[in-house]
Structure of Protein DETOXIFICATION:
Amino acid sequence: MCSILKCLAVVDDLIKVKEEDTEHNGSKGESVAYYTFHGLKQVAEKLASLAKIAWPIIITSLLMYSKSFVSMLFLGHLGDIALSGGSLSISFANITGYSVLKGLAMGMEPICYQAYGAKRWAIMTKTYRKTLILLLAAVFPISLLWLNMEPILLWLGQDENIAAVAKIYIKYSIPDLIAQAHFHPLRTFLRTQNINRPLTISVIGAMLLHCPINYFLVVYLNLGVRGVALASAWNTLNVNFGLLVYLIMSKTSLRPWDGGIASIFSEGWHPLLALAGPSVLSVCLEWWCYEILLLLCSLLSNPQVNVAAMGILIQTTSLLYVFPSSLSSALSIQVGHELGADQPKQAQQTSIVGFTLAALWGILAFLFTTAVRDVWGRLFTCDPMTLGLTSSTLPLLGFCELGNSPQTAACGVLVGSARPKMGCNINFVSFYLIGLPVAALSAFKFNMGFVGLWFGMAAAQVSCTCMMVCTLICTDWKQQATRAKELTQENEDSKNDLEAPLLS
């Protein structure tokens, strides 16, 4: 309700114009109608601007989501142990590797977005190179951890055969980790310039090759689990290759290798590290929460059914998450550009329009999960107990989306305004001080079982959304524009207009 009232206030601001239109002075009714039309037109322009950025991201995200789906199909073809070991390895890789790289890469987003808005092109290229170095440096300790994963899994009580397969899979996933370290900053660098089509085309091309590559490695060369892992790495390398080809051939975009590199190691690391630290914590805290829920499922009675149902629901929420996540990225870009261009009012309006749009998506997600609760589980399993548990919990998952969608959009606003620490604090409080305790008490103390775990997640999402709303309402947007100037202020006397003709 607060977000709706706030949005109405913004619409009221939008319909005010600086000069009176003499053609509409004759009639008050005509004047109000004109201003209302003018304001709604500007809101529509905001929506169109966000949609222009978000839709390519949605398509790309769905295609990348299908990558893991194909991998799971080929793992299932290899047998139950391969499927279990591969799934366990993917989960371990997400927790300890991919989430870390994604979080670290998010540190460059507000700097690049605001630098682009301020037309400080040199800052963008320097930030890209520093982020690439940071991610490649992070690959080394993560790889060491992955190579020693088997003893950790055995210590946690995992089956020896499954742990052995998981070790093989994650060992051959290290090339994908390196490729991801290059992909994340390159994707952000292009999105900063509103260049999304090459990424979409590259992902489409990589996905068209993904099934044949899997078949070649897994079946033809008989590499088994190793082939599935290598095919995933090959897919990421293909995407990287497509983006590099575009950059080499493009005559309009900035190139990350433009400019000197001699001073990269000696200057300007503090802003990036100050943003990367909270960003990686924020991402990891949210990712880890779902893994902890999965672990708690194994402690309930009939753990096989509970874990299977939780897997279906997590896959479902991951699919529903594509839209708010893409909208969040669009908001980060747009808000960052507007703050960098010293347009705080525009940034505020974009935030509220985007937040309201995300809230509407949450309602649609709730209606969808409620409507398909009796048939959705059949896409994944035929087990009656798992189907019953999934059916009874899907409406609660939809209720979680009422909070998850707008809070995800709000996180995008915080990223665009260079406030990842605020998002990290909110995630920690809502998920770990509220959500998980409520989940544990509901499931075990009050004997609500599996459904109780999702009551905890609902409590986390509601509290997170409330805190995000309060944060956005209390935001001083003029101050954020001032912070953007400080963040993008260069520490050297070099000119920033060397690449300006490329973007003019």
Q: What stands out?
A: The CA atoms of residues 327 and 394 lie 23 Å apart. The mean pLDDT is 83. The chain is about 80% helix and 0% strand.
